[in-house]
Structure formats: structure tokens, C-alpha cells
Fold this sequence. Notes:
By secondary structure, the protein is of the alpha+beta class. Helix content is about 20%, strand content about 25%.
Amino acid sequence: xxxxxxxxxxxxxxxxxxxxxxxxxxxxxxxxxxxxxxxxxxxxxxxxxxxxxxxxxxxxxxxxxxxxxxxxxxxxxxxxxxxxxxxxxxxxxxxxxxxxxxxxxxxxxxxxxxxxxxxxxxxxxxxxxxxxxxxxxxxxxxxxxxxxxxxxxxxxxxxxxxxxxxxxxxxxxxxxxxxxxxxxxxxxxxxxxxxxxxxxxxxxxxxxxxxxxxxxxxxxxxxxxxxxxxxxxxxxxxxxxxxxxxxxxxxxxxxxxxxxxxxxxxxxxxxxxxxxxxxxxxxxx
Length: 285
């Protein structure tokens, strides 16, 4: 007997759990499996609608109490770095970028553990072991790359294959319209060099060189100090009310925190456009 995947993806909802961004809130996610021969097309289509990838799953916040998590992306063609961002790029000029296939290494995991233990010791990923880390990097049904940033040695020059310590890593998906920064981490001893910002700036350069229009950053959460840095980038857009709109830094987004700001699950799923069709889907239990 032959078994085939369903023609349309089925959507599910996670059980509520404590929100990692806003105190006193509970988070819930809408998700679907990312698999089969059309995985890349599905990922491209849903990424444009605020979904993110985690291994072989696509998800989007679907919280009952608020809709504060807003997917964010940068318009590459219109981006202009601030003075602070230009200083960040200059401070990290000693780093060399190298793009690799999505294959986990011991150096990556060592850096990942130091990053979590220093900056996110109480987070949901704090207990990840080496096998779970390898799964995060390697279990991808689409075109993904691991972008490493290593320090050049004292006798090396720009453009050389750096032989110094690994300082930062980003797992990056290549979409039809941009780059999606799935997860990044860096040397906690280099926190004053703003490596998180630097990796975003470098991905903008990569996208510009490749002719890709967007950098997908994940979620921006108004009211969460952890997410404030994303609003410092020019030409940033957020996915709100089923379309992308420029982020206006002085606009009041407090309405997103209201319990009535979230549509029912059935309406959320019905509004999702699937690849190669204008039809809508209904939630499968």
C-alpha cells in the first residue's frame, strides 16, 4: 500500500505555556509539518504570512490573550545603517564569514552552550544536549546554511580563511524572497561588540549581493526589552492584520496586548493562503 502526504497541510495548536517575552502571559502556537517534495514552496509561502521554521515544523504565535508577537523583516533595498550600526560593523571587521552546509560541529556546540549558560540559563533551550543541538542544525527539509563568523589570526588578512576562534553562528534559511535568520548565538565574552546586530548587518549584505529583497528576523514584541533591538533597524516591516506594514517606532502598539486582539483559531487558519492556490483551509483536529 502506498502512503502519500495530504495535499493540503493540516494545522494544529499547542497547549498554552508560559510566555518567554511578557510576564504574566501564556503563549500558544499554530503549527504544521514541513515535509515532502513541496516543503520549500510551503516554507516560502507561509514565511510571507508570519510563520517561522523550527526543524521540520512551521509555526506562528496564536495566543489567546494577545497578538503581541509580530513577525518582522527588513527591506534590504531601503536599509540605511545608523551611526551606531556602522560602528558595530567596524568593531567586528576582524571577523571572517564562512557559509557551510547545515552540519553541526563540536566548536558550534561549545559556543552554543557558553551562550546559553551566560545569557539564557533559564530559557526553554537551556537543557539542550549535543544531540538536540545537532537536530536543530541538521533537520531541515529546505535550503539552509550555517553562517559562521571566526576571528582572523594575527598574520591573516581580510578574505583569508580565518583560523582564529569561532565567535558567532547563525542558522539561516534561503527563501525565494530573502534570508530567514532561524537562530543565532555568539561568544558571550564579546557581548560589547554587539554580535547579534553585526550578524543582521552582514546578512543584509549577503541578501543584497544575492538580489534578495528581505531579511526575516523572527518576532518583534512590543513591551519586551529582549526585542527592542529589532526596532533600531531602518526599513523594518511587521506582519499585522494579514499584511506587511512599515514599523512606526513612535506608534502605540499596546492594542496588540488586549485579550480581544486575537481572532479565533478557525478564522486564523481560514485566512492562510497555501501554495499555488487561492483557496483557504480549515483547521484539522
